[in-house]
């Protein structure tokens, strides 16, 4: 049984976003989870979820139609952010000089739902996330993505907290 | 930097209790976290927290003094449970035939507080827990130990969910 587990392809999904916490989680993954990993079949999947495009009424408060270029600007910003996050994640991976195979996936929608759905669809062996140390109010109103994922993903979830001294 | 991390002693704490979920988390730890682990300095620490001994009034409802043997019985039950959990955990470790060094620690008190304090004191590199899939009410009233630990421990936390088909 152990032998099968050792040889089986391992899929590690790291949920990345524009936060320092998620980049720290990615570093931890490469330094601690993969550094000692002798399994040549491991794949690191960087997963970024674009926020949902807001559904505007076609009339703004002044009664004018929303110009198409406003929507295009929002979409461009969203794409730019995704590219920027993936470039940072790439830089972190290069920094560790790891031989691990890296794949990238970009989804869009409510992060917690899309992450859980993607992890199940990818049949990931483990999901790694940074812990956002929001204050009481933000947590109480927005809820925590990692709390939600801990309850809803089927695979083990690693919540990585960024040390305050770092 | 990577080299230092590779050579450094790794302390993995697994919080065990009488649940199937915690034994599954321990198995996952041995099969997935340690199977590919070539670090000879890794230590697996089995951490069991005995529930706090209830503080009774020395007079029970009938006005009689609590007999010493009642308290002794409660304490004996608590010790027996701790021993039984550790024996099961031992059996799981033997089953994996892992060369990893295993230590045992038993604490007592409110599990979530004692786990967080122990993990910090031991300077653990990672904490592994089973996910108890309590229903909405139990979770709402009792809260979740893993939610609490995710917010309060300094090291990365792995929450391992037992597959429903297992």
Automatic annotation (TrEMBL), chains A, B:
Domain called UspA: residue spans: 10-161
Highest rank taxon of the organism: Eukaryota
Protein's name in the database: Universal stress protein A-like protein
Higher taxonomy: Eukaryota, Viridiplantae, Streptophyta, Embryophyta, Tracheophyta
SUPFAM superfamilies: Adenine nucleotide alpha hydrolases-like
InterPro entries, per the entry: Rossmann-like_a/b/a_fold, Universal_stress_UspA, UspA
